Structure formats: structure tokens, C-alpha cells
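pasting for ref
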Amino acid sequence: MLKLPQILQNRDKFYGLADSAVLSLFRFGSSLAIARLGGSELFATYILLMTTSVIFQLLPSTCFLIPLLNRGTGAAPAQYGELCQWAQRGVERAALVFFLLGFALLFCVPNCPIPITMGLGFLAATCAQLWQQSMRSRLQMEFKQGHALYADVVACSIHLLVSGYLWLQGVSLLTAFWWGATAAAISSSLLMKVHARKLELGRDEHSETRIHTARQQGRAMLRGSLANSACSRLQPYLLGAIASTEILAFYGVLWTLIGPVRLLSMALTNLLRPRLALFQNQARPADFVRMYRSALSILSVTGILASAAALWLGQPSIALLFGSELAPASQWLSLALIYATLDAITTCQMIAVQIKREDGAALTARLRIHSAIISILLVIPATLCFGLTGTLGSLLIAEIYYAIACQYKVAQVRRPQGLSSRKGNRDHVRILRT
């Protein structure tokens, strides 16, 4: 079992948060630069491509990397190695399918709006970033976030240098961005691979059981991830189809500004998932509860403060950062921040349920599918009637339903099999109700 002194785990938390801060600042700066240099139309194209990239990377990560974190953290060396190898094969197959499909579309779609060089850079960057995520997951499980921070700082520098050089040479802004992202992701992945622990392979009965469980969880969570994408990531395509380019650019501004809240959520969940899995595997319920409640408190306080600040500072901040052309987006900023906060809270709730309950992956997937149905049914009429307010409102209603329904289902948990003592059962129910 993987055990580290408490001081090292605390230092690893700092490195994990610092790594997320670096990525957040770089992504925010990149979006800001594209909006300022390219204008609203180019920024709208960037939002559509970035949304596509996020959706693709999310699906294989949910199917392979999240089950790897749940089952691999704290596992015996041979079991850990087999799980990592299983996840890596799945990620590589997904990247190959995505690249070949995108390559075919670039050359087969008549009058394709995306230039070939930009499209190839986008495909290469997305696949390389997925590989980078798999390497980062390895370092998370091994509590080596300091090495991940170093690799990502180097990657951001390479991205900036390559993109800037290509742009100065006359390459279009988005083409330079995606090829710079490709070089950065490959460099970061190689650096992370150097610091990751060498895998010990040796499949036995326990390894087969863990891989089987991870595969089942991955399939269940993939359904939830597909539903989540339908619920919260189809809006840019919808706005591009039924609204103006200006509205889509406003949406991009909002998603850029709520990025720090969402990346704070990602940072906390990156720290939360492997540690909750470790506490669960080592039967440490008090540590499980304490870390889970701390994450919820941090997210709630941050979201409340950010939403309040947006009421006073939203318009001047957007005008300063993105220009007066996109300043009207400030009227929706507080609503977007409330949604981002609730989304972060439900993500933590989902992680706790998936780790604590044997049927957690299937349960959260079903609830996410229900949320997606609600969002899809509401989003088109709400957008047509109320514009961007309706779009954000449909997202918020779906997240409220998910939070309430998940809490209700968790409160119904019964005494699990194999729990022999009443005290153990009370601890189990108390943890799930947090």
C-alpha cells in the first residue's frame, strides 16, 4: 500500500494547487490574447474548438483515468502497474480514433470552415493533451505533484515561445496556438513520464478484479460524462446555430472568466479523488469526512465572494480585459459564477459517492442523465425566449436537480454487505450524508 508521511502529503497539496493556478492563469491569458488580437469572430471559433477539445478529452478521462485514480491509489505495485497499463491502452486507442476521424472530416467535408493546417494542429494538440492527462494522473496517484508543476511550467513556456514564433512568422493566430499547444503537451508528457514510477507488471487474481471493477466503473461514468457533455457543453454549438456570433463571443467571455472557479474545482478534485480513495482503501473515515467537508467549504466561500464581486467589478473588468466590444457580457457574469460554484460542489459530491458506494458510478451516471434531459428540454426554448439568460438558467436548474437528487439518494443508503459492526455502519452512513 502506498503510504507517505503527512508532511509530504501536505506539501503535495500545495504543489497540486500551484499547478492548477499556473494552468488557470495560462489558459486565461491565452483566451484573453485571442479575444484581444483576433476579435469576436475569431474568439467564437476558438470557443467552439476548445469546447470540442474539452469534450473529447473528458470522455476517455472519465472512462479510463478516473477509474484508475479510484482503484489504483494505494494499490499494491503489481496491481498499480496493470491498472496503469490498462488505462494507457484505452487512452491511446481513443486518441487514435479521434485523430483519424478528425483527419477524415478535414479532407471530406466540402468547404470546411477550418483550414487544414489549423485543423491538424487542433487534432494533434488534443491527442497530445490527453496523453499529458494520463501522465499527470500517474503523478497524482504517486503524490508527485511537484514534478507535475515543473513539467507544466516548462510546457507553458514552450507553448508561448512556439506560438509566438509561428505568429510572428505570419501563421494565423489559431493555427499558431494549436501547434504551440502540441509542442507543449508532448514536452510536458515526456517530463512527467521521466518522474513517474516504473511500472511493475504481474497480473494475478487481485489485478483482474481491480481491472474488472475499474472497467465497470468507467463504463458507468462514461454514460454520465456523455450526459454531462449534453447538459453543459453543447451550448456553444447551440448558440452558434440559433444566436449571433456576438452572443457566442459573450458566452466565451463568461466561460473564460469563470475559468478560475472551475479550475479551482479541478484542482481540489485532483487532490480530493486520490486522497479520498486512499482513505477509503485504508479505512480512515475521519480523514475522509474532514477532507470532503474542507473542499466543499473552500468552493462555497470562493463562489460566494466571486459572485458578489462580479456585481460591482464585472463591467469595468471585462471592458479592461476584453475591450468595450465584449463589455455587455458583464450582465450575465454573476449568474455564470453561481452556476460554476454549484457545478464544482456537485462534482465533489459525485466523487465522494463514486468512491464510497459500490454502485456510486452507476448512481451518479443515472442522475447526470436525468440532469441532461432537463437541460436539453429547457435550453432551446429558454434561449429563444430569454437569450443568454435562458441558456445559463437551464444549466443552473439542471445542476440544482442533480445536487438535490444525489443528496436524497445518498441519504437512502442501506447497511453495506460485509460491514459487521453497528459502529461501522453508522460511520458509513454519516460519511455518505456529508
